[in-house]
Amino acid sequence: MTQVNSKISPLRQRMTDDMRMRNFSPSTQRNYIRSIRDFAAYLRRSPGRRHTRSFS
Fold this sequence. Notes:
- The chain is mainly α.
- Helix content is 54%, strand content 0%.
- The longest helix is centred in the middle third of the chain and has 18 residues, at 26-43.
- The chain has a domain at 10-40.
């Protein structure tokens, strides 16, 4: 595992480490991280936060 930067969440660091271990290219890693960031912005919450749907 790489050294954790205090500005990077543990979940993002783990995702980056896993992609590096699987030999993903740097551009693929950037694209995956960007996609997760954009999806989290769409949902308006962090990907690390669990969410329970309420059906009312």
